[in-house]
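Supplementary Data S3. Sequence and structure tokens for construct A.
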Amino acid sequence: MSTAVTERGAPRPMPAGSQVMLWFTADGRLVARAGCNTITGQVELSGGQIWMAEMAMTEMGCADDLLAQDQWLASLLDARPSWQLSGPHLRVSTGQTVIELTDRRVLGPDRPLERTRWVASVLTGGNVTDAAITALGRVFLVFGQGRVAGSDGCQPLSGPAAVSGTTISFGAGPAVTGSPCTDPAAAELARRVRATLHGDVGYQIEAGELSLTGTDADGLGAGLQLTAVPQSSPP
């Protein structure tokens, strides 16, 4: 992730909240972003240069300043910039443009799965009403000692959560206690959350984001994305 971008020795103006991301994959590709679209292509790194013989870029609609920044980054990568790696720090430069980057795991270390309070931000798989989406912030999970506890947004839940590699086994799913929801939207959200926490579910953590991907009891795709929040005391 970029920490500084300069042109002719001066900071390059960047749209608010934007950052350059370069990801060199294990299968020899470069994935690059500058705030909106994604640039991908096979990459050659020999001779101290980044060379992409062919690159593709998504065509998302974004603000004009972000689209311009996408084109700027694509042009920079097309110019075969030089690269220098020193520990977690990478410098990419061409002409009078220099991008200083630092390993994302240094800038934003991956949070531990266990003993982190994870609050839901996105529910994937199937349609969800706007009213249900607004209630996502009440959904949270805390993992520890082979179990999960939290809330489906309506009722407290708890159950098994055996972690093996990149998979969490929830078995038949967590049990809930307390009174059922009276609000239809909240009840539907709670049902979808519990359906996601069923059987074997893949998980991935990147910085403070947890993604859960599996299938519900009907064999349909179900997923949940959650964000780490500070937790001052053990669950």
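Construct B, processed identically:
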Amino acid sequence: MSYKLLSFSAGRDTRAGLLVDGKVYDAARVTGELGWSSVLGALQDWGKANRAFAAFAKRVAKSKAKGVPLARVKLLAPVLYPGNIYCAGANYTDHMAEMARAQGKEPGPTMKDLGEKPWHFVKTSRSSVVGPGAKVKLPAYSQKVDWEVELAAVIGTTAKDVPVAKALACVAGYTIANDLSARDAMRRDKNPPTSPFHYDWVSQKCFDGSCPLGPWIVPAADLRDPHQLGIKLWVNAELMQDSHTSKLIFDTAEQIAMLSSRVTLRPGDLVLTGTPAGVGMGRGRFLKPGDAVKLWIEEIGELNHTLA
């Protein structure tokens, strides 16, 4: 029996929970470790916590602990709140081809083909992260908010200058993110495209609620291969993105290695690995109030939220 790690609402409190066989158990209570009452607390002690959580999942049938059916639990974003959120840009082969066509260009070689390194921007944490079922208020300054389903790696150990071959060992688990993007706020038109101040990453990527996250974290050991997963997104039941993580340009290990060569990654940081083809910008269609978005990644689950 395996488990999934989540955050849930317990009255005015927020607790870390273990989803085992359809029921949610308070992580700190079933293990006796008060420091694991939050997901961030568990990630700070990930090696020990993961072993204890897996052991509980195996003995849950013999345990006297009382779980609550998942349907009766109010889920929150699994990491409240991430330390840093690093987001890969232009990192799926099908998405790069789609965006080139949208600009009237022929798809060319990828940055990896050209010998470049992975590239990331930073998204805010407390303002951006919301959980399953959230109603995200569209920012007043944008009429072109776009969707981007992404596989998110949750860092579980401090990492600095990690080689590619050891990078995935730094991942505690994986979850789903929607990197919502205000496309019409991405440029400052009075600055020429050659200016380093032409792009406005805060307005485009960091508005309130711009990072729906969840529904839980699947431990890394429970995924056969993070680069062999189906990945999809629907808007109002219409399939928009339908791809596969094998189409990543720089894989998760390469991204973590690159990031760790520049900054120290710490438990609770997130790496959003990029989005595939099917975004709204490529088809000139964007999110509206009342839209319902469903995201799905194979072996992880389903994340839903709406727009207001």
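The longest strand covers residues 211-219. The chain has a mean pLDDT of 96.
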